Amino acid sequence: MSQSMGKALGLLDIVAEGEKTLAELGEASALPKSTAYRLAAVLVKYGFLRTDGRRYQLGYRLMELGELAKDQVRLPALARPHMEALAASSLETVHLGELAGIDVVYLEKVEGARGLLMRSRVGLASPACTTAMGKAIIAHFSPDAWAAYFQNRGALTPHTITRLDVFERELDTVLQRGVAFDREENELGITCIAAPVFDASGTATAAVSLSGAVVYLPPERLEELVEAVVGCARAVSKELGGWREPSHESATSAADGEVATA
Question: Per-residue b/e over 63-97, b at no fewer than 16 CB within 10 Å?
Fold first, then answer.
């Protein structure tokens, strides 16, 4: 039973990448066509998949469960009013994320007023070491643990940090300044500022980021927005019963730092 469940969940992951025919499901899953059909039929029966008779798509039951899951996750609900305020005042997109292994998972997203399309979406996982949110959280872990979060799986963009020593120097700077930056490291043309969210135990459990197109967020604009991003993260931390002042002398000059991406 557990093996069949695992195979069925694997089919969901495959269809999540894009609608598939039965033959494509079998090929991608390495399952016999008859097994793929049987499992897909069960998923269709319970609403996890839907089909037009030729291709399979994700079912509406997943949308329902996704909304229920969001309702059961306390943090996004607490953070959203503060995120909306930041998005309204800055015109930029605001994200909330937490670590899941060595990735950052987007828990909430508030679109900015510029109508900018970016890859991020609720539920998406991105390599933590390429994102401002990931760096904002990881920097507050023991330096001995930093290397475990570095993934040199190839540069996502020409600006991605691809050396561990450079990544560790970046985290040192984040820890000193209290904010992290993603300068087109995760998505070309997009830059971000992030600050950590602390829970009642003082642990950095999540982060808030502000993201926008490079054309709208030049270095001087980033510097202007640092205080607002830190303020948003502080407000969310207070909702969780935890906030401690960042271990930096001043966050206001963080945006003008250069980071090598060799």
Answer: eeeeeeeeeeeebbebbbebbebbbeebebbbbbb
Number of domains in the chain: 2
DSSP at 218 = -
Q: Are residues 7 and 122 in the same domain?
A: no
Q: Are residues 104 and 6 in the same domain?
A: no
Q: Could you tell me if residue 262 is inside a domain?
A: no
Query: Could you report the per-residue pLDDT of 188-208, keeping only the tens digit for each?
Result: 999 999 999 998 888 999 999
Q: Which helix (H) or strand (E) holds 211?
A: strand 204-213
pLDDT value for 255: 40
CATH number of the domain enclosing 18: 1.10.10.10
Query: Burial level of 5, CB count in 10 A (0-12/13-18/19+)?
Result: exposed
Which residue type is seen at 253? S
Buried b (16+ CB within 10 A) or exposed e, 194-216: bbbbbeeeeebbbbbbbbbbeee
Domain span including residue 11: 2-65
Q: Which stretches of the chain are DSSP H helices?
A: 2-16, 22-29, 33-45, 60-72, 74-90, 132-138, 164-177, 219-239
Q: Provide the whole-model pTM.
A: 0.69
The single-letter code of the amino acid at 126 is S
Distance of CA 152 to the CA centre of its chain: 18
Residue 106 has pLDDT above 50, yes or no: yes
pLDDT at 252: 36
